[in-house]
Design goal:
Largest sheet: 6 strands, parallel
InterPro entries: CoA-bd, NAD(P)-bd_dom_sf, Rex_actinobacterial-type, Rex_DNA-bd_C_dom, Tscrpt_rep_Rex, WH-like_DNA-bd_sf, WH_DNA-bd_sf
Bound molecules: nicotinamide-adenine-dinucleotide
Protein name: Redox-sensing transcriptional repressor Rex
Keywords: Cytoplasm, DNA-binding, NAD, Repressor, Transcription, Transcription regulation
CATH topology of the largest domain: Rossmann fold
Helix content: 40-55%
Number of helices: 9
Order of helices and strands: HHEHHEHEHEEEEHEHEEH
Family: Belongs to the transcriptional regulatory Rex family.
Shape: globular
Function: Modulates transcription in response to changes in cellular NADH/NAD(+) redox state.
CATH architecture of the largest domain: 3-Layer(aba) Sandwich
């Protein structure tokens, strides 16, 4: 993901509890939600913060801090009610809303996203897929048919899309973003490697795998340096 900024924070209204949720906590909340979902399918009704933290791969003080943003503190000795906590996180993340996603750009990425069956169970229904290439228009991807971008506004209205994913080349991204905004879309996820300008009321997130890889490389290099330093220290003490 791109470097977090103010826009990466959930608005007080969206958090449902009047507090901003920092981006790192927000990311972990989605992990807790997935873990709680698995617990519910296994019929688990209560979970301690230690158990939930372990299943999510975090420490329990961090988990308790994250959940405190929702006003959820659990009950000492009893833990958290699994379905209730899951509902609370879903509400804070806005997942109780009906998210209907349109994908703009049906190339490698757009088709892979449109064909992925895992979004529905996480609350996101892909309702339309657009492309500017007449050769692509009409082709089927999963259960969707690629629509011509010329008809985007009317199809967005007809499908009641309220979220969009931009998977077009960088040079087409701002123009398509403007059209989405003009059509009333206020939540946009962009894969295009450009900075997009949107009005303040529009939420935009950028997915940048190259940035993620650079961050990963930085941490891997730090871990290597620190392992070498520990080695050298151990040799000196021998
Ligand atoms: N963030 C990441 O990690 C990541 C990874 C891969 C690709 N990307 C970016 O995602 C975008 C898509 O990548 P891809 O590999 O799918 O490219 P692609 O060339 O396979 O697909 C792009 C598609 O967009 C269509 N298109 C062009 N202009 C359009 C317009 N105005 N309206 C609608 N459709 C239009 C093209 O016809 C094509 O089908 C690119 O900007 C790429 O740089 C980002």
């Amino acid at each position: 993901m791109s470097i977090p900024d103010e826009r990466d924070l959930v608005s007080p209204a969206a958090s449902g509890h009047g507090r901003h949720i920092p981006p790192a906590s927000l990311a972990r909340l989605t992990v807790y939600l997935r873990v709680l979902g698995t617990m519910m399918t296994e019929g688990i009704e209560r979970v301690s913060s230690e158990e939930l933290a372990e299943a999510a791969g975090v420490n329990s003080p961090k988990l308790r801090k994250d959940l405190s943003y929702l006003g959820s503190y659990g009950t000492r000795g009893v833990g958290y009610d699994v379905p209730y906590l899951s509902g609370q996180i879903s509400a804070a993340l806005g997942l109780t809303l009906d998210w209907r996603v349109a994908i703009v750009g049906a190339g490698h990425l757009g088709r892979a996203l449109a064909g992925y069956p895992g979004f529905g169970s996480r609350g996101f229904e892909v309702v339309a897929l657009f492309d500017a290439d007449q050769m692509a228009v009409g082709q089927e991807v999963g259960w969707l048919r690629i629509s011509p971008v010329e008809a985007m506004e009317s199809i967005l209205e007809k499908t009641r899309a309220n979220m969009a994913v931009l998977a077009v080349p960088a040079e087409a991204a701002q123009g398509m973003c403007d059209r989405l905004v003009d059509a009333g879309i206020t939540s946009i996820l962009s894969f295009a490697p450009v900075v997009l300008q949107v009005p303040a009321e529009v939420q935009i997130r950028k997915v940048d795998m190259a940035t993620e890889l650079q961050i990963l490389a930085y941490h891997a290099q730090r871990a290597q340096v620190s392992a070498l330093a520990t080695d050298a220290q151990a040799r000196m003490l021998r």
